Amino acid sequence: MKETPQQAVLRKLFDRIETLGTISSDTPGLTRVFLSKEMDIASRLIQSWMSNAGLIASVDRMQNVVGSWPAETAHPPAIHIGSHYDTVINAGKYDGPLGVLLSIAAVETLRLEGYEPKHPINVAAFCDEEGVRFRSTFLGSSFFCGTFDTRFLDNVDDAGNSMRSLLELRGFDTSSFNQGTPLIGKDDLFLEAHIEQGPILERLNLSLGVVSGIAAQTRIHVTITGESGHAGTTPLDLRRDALTTAAEMILAVEASFADNPNARATVGQIKNYPNATNAIPGEVEFMIDLRNPVTAGLNQMRDTLLNKLDEIAARRTTEFKAEILQTVDSITCDSNVQQALSKALAKHQERVTTFTSGAGHDALKIAQTCRTGMMFVRCRNGLSHHPDEYCSPKDIEVALAAWVDTLRELDQNFPTPEKANA
Ligand SMILES: [Zn+2]
Predict the structure, then answer these.
(1) Cα–Cα distance between 287 and 264 in angstroms, integer?
(2) CA of 326 to the centre of ligand 1 (A)
(3) Most distant CA pair in the chain: distance in Å?
(4) For the chain, does the N or the C end have fewer beta carbons within 10 angstroms?
(5) Which residue has the higher pLDDT, 269 or 419?
């Protein structure tokens, strides 16, 4: 039986997910970091798929790919949909690309229907969300909004290449790095589709969820200084062991928030010096990642924890230094966008659930510029940032249908900014 045009859109969507999943600097595995050869290849593929869907594709100076729907019927404000196309190291193929490719397919579906948009519709594929190469996240979406901090141009990767030098290799003059007029305006809407990266939808047996907001997060770099010494000669009660201090602190990070279901507190990285079998550890560095649905809650967590760690260090006669590296405030997704998403999801699954995202996303950055919303798609075992990351074809099919309905609904009944703030 010959496939219908709608079936062809879905088939292309599945094929594109697989194809992008092979564009990797490592094999086996999937690694695609900002300003790499693989990103250049992925960018060209995404542009060709956008063109195939009837969008006019372009690439900005940061390597964001944007596809604009050419429509004489469209008048601002605009609706932007999409996600990122970079990955972490040894990633899965859905985190980021799913939102980009679903958005291309949504436009393709609406164009098949002969739909004429009232508002400009753009599909965005952001070049760096994960921040792997230059240790700073949201580079693509901040450039898209015109809020990119040009000081980051001098960040260097592990091989010593600066972002500036890699951009210049691509023919950009960074001495007068001008972000130009951002494509996104304050009255516009931005919608992102993304895998959930958590277990909630799977537990509720639902394909899709509406995101109510994105949690606040902070990263704290801790240094503990004790005194190194010979493991055989220094009695236990005369030691100033930085690693045993760190051990007690890490347990305190966990214990401090065990009763708070909204809190997330993680120590995921640690360095021990001199890190030798026969040496008492003299210095330890570790990172604390704290998250909370609201900024005030996060601040409280941080203050409580730092006091506790200070007390532990003092009791163990070690020196404690905490440096707050990055803090991102929580955001609330626009209520009108949440409503449009809920209405669309209700058509395709028996009930709708709404919850906060604990992971950061491009929508978090873009919320500083305009109203945003997000749809989550179930992923197996809540797993992400891993080669086994998986979304079922059925869930992707439902996601596409809901994404098309949401886009149509918001285009037809575009929420005015006044209404949004009411
Ligand atoms: Zn992502």
Answers:
(1) 14
(2) 18
(3) 82
(4) N
(5) 269
Boundary residue ending a domain (328, 349, 364) = 328
Distance 77 CA to ligand 1 centre (A): 26
The answer on 256 and 288 residing in a single domain is yes
**Domain region containing 89:** 5-215+330-421
Residue-level pLDDT at 418: 61
Name the residue among 336, 289, 398, 313 with its Cα closest to residue 10: 398
| The domain boundary residue, chosen from 280, 300, 328 | 328
CA 105 vs CA 10, 14, 63, 145, 343: distances in Å: 7, 10, 21, 24, 20
List pLDDT tens digits, range 239-267.
999 999 999 999 999 999 999 999 999 99
Q: From ligand 1's centre to the CA of 193, what distance in Å?
A: 9
Q: How far apart are CA 208 and CA 203, in angstroms?
A: 12
d(CA 322, CA 299): 15
Are 171 and 40 contained in the same domain? Answer: yes
pTM: 0.88
Distance from residue 53's CA to the centre of ligand 1 (Å): 23
CA distance 193 to 357: 12
Does residue 176 register a pLDDT over 80?
no
**Please, which residues bridge with residue 356 across strands?**
213
CATH number of 55's domain: 3.40.630.10
